[in-house]
Amino acid sequence: MEELSRLKIELERTKAELSILHEISNAMRTTLKLDEILYIILTGVTAHTGLGFNRAMLFLVNEKEKIIEGIMGIGPESGEEANAAWTRIEQEKMGLDDLINAFKNSNAALESGFNRQVKNLKIPMFDKNENPLSLAVLEGMPLHLIGETIQRYQNSPVIKMLESDELVLMPLKAKNRVNGIIVADNFITNDPITKDDLRMLTMLANQAGLAIENSQLYEKTVYHAHSDYLTNLWNHGYFQFLLQNELEKAKATKNKLSLIIADIDDFKIYNDTLGHQAGDKILKDLAQLLRNQSRKIDLVCRYGGEEFVIILPQTDKKEAFMIAERIRKDIQKYPFLNEEIFPNKMLTVSLGIATFPEDGMLPAELITSSDNYLYKAKNKGKNNTCCG
Predict the structure, then answer these.
(1) Cβ-Cβ contacts under 8 Å for 263 (sequence gap 6 or more)
(2) Residue 228, in any domain of the structure
């Protein structure tokens, strides 16, 4: 009789575990966007209806730069914050789907101090004597750190940041290659990490690694489909989509949005003298410079020929003018190949700026306005920025 009761309890627990994993797995299949995939994984690790860890963070392996990068972290920064969040979840009876939908509707979860700390972490990949993350990536095995083993890695940035007495590092794999790491702990409740916790986390990690790989492949495909073959910037067609999208966001949030159109001055002279291959080299170098000199939120695109456009979300005309002038001066100083062929012995650009809502409410209106300002800049003698 006692054995039967034990088996029933075991069966119920197994059913509950499978149900949790099934729910997380289904959620991961609803999107191919990497940030949403990562959030679903971490929510599965931390949610009370999931694996129930107090906090978790996710790192991705950057093989090109040989580092392990902190990408996202979910969890409270104090006991008070934890209790407030858990009470709200309990009162509103929020399940896994509710938590995920809350993220899709608002990125508030990513504005936490904990997430910002995680995103600043960059760990050398081949530093397994000092960093447990490196060891987990190189060995491809989970690490359960407690007591003395944590002390061994006390100089690791992750261990210093978490200040935890016990944590687990779980590698994420796709085709026998580690592409990420989940780090989780229970720093508020101090619940011990059990064999069942590790088993569940391992099963989740097996699905998570594949979901991440699929998302990364999808994002690469999208990038190649929408990028300009010569400059690797977004192409004209995708620029139209991005402008429409950003304009809708600006309208919804009542924010400003600015658009810069930049055109190389006297580019025909350069092309006619040295040929289109030399011209292509100029376009590539200029594209790289524009990308480097723009902010992370800005969207740099090739409009066509020798014209480039930059979409500047949350930017008014005054700030857009300052950004455009900085770019114009940086281009003027840059040593482009054979630039002495240009009339002024250097490559320069003219720029036109339009801002939502004063210069237009629709994408076509903003493009027309910035184009008109560009021609004003050309008529003023070129190597100018015009916005009114």
Answers:
(1) 306, 307, 308, 349, 350, 351, 374, 378
(2) no
364: tokens are 């076509």
Percentage of residues of the chain with pLDDT beyond 90: 65
List the beta bridge partners of residue 259. Answer: 311, 354
Residues 73 and 54: beta-carbon distance below 8 Å? no
For residue 379, the model assigns a pLDDT of: 94
Q: φ, ψ for residue 33 (rounded to 5)?
A: -75, 130
On the question of pLDDT at 340 being above 70, the answer is yes
Q: 278 and 305 share a domain?
A: yes
pLDDT, mean of residues 8-20: 69
Question: Model pTM?
Answer: 0.71
Q: With contact defined as beta carbons under 8 Å apart, do 353 and 312 qualify?
A: no
Greatest Cα pair distance, the chain, in angstroms, is 97
- Domain assignment present for residue 229? The answer is no
The structural domain count of the chain equals 2
Amino acid type, 109: A
Q: Could you tell me where the beta strands, DSSP code E, fall in the chain?
A: 55-62, 67-74, 122-124, 143-146, 166-174, 177-185, 257-264, 299-304, 307-313, 349-356, 385-386
Which residue has tokens 């594949």? 210
pLDDT confidence bin for 257, thresholds 50/70/90:
very high
> Do residues 63 and 180 share a domain?
yes
Average pLDDT estimate for 52-72: 94
Whether 231 maps to a domain, the answer reads no
CATH of the domain at 72: 3.30.450.40
CA distance 201 to 44: 10
Closest by alpha carbon to 186, among 32, 54, 18?
Answer: 54
What SS3 class is residue 165?
A: coil
Say if 67 falls within a structural domain. yes
* 167 and 264 share one domain: no
CATH code of the domain in which 260 resides: 3.30.70.270
Q: Do both 289 and 364 map to the same domain?
A: yes
Q: Do β-strands 385-386 and 349-356 pair in parallel, antiparallel, or remain unpaired? A: parallel
Task: Judge if 31 and 178 occupy the same domain.
Answer: yes
Is 176 or 385 the better-scoring residue by pLDDT? Answer: 385
Can you give the residue range of the structural domain that contains 57?
Answer: 2-223
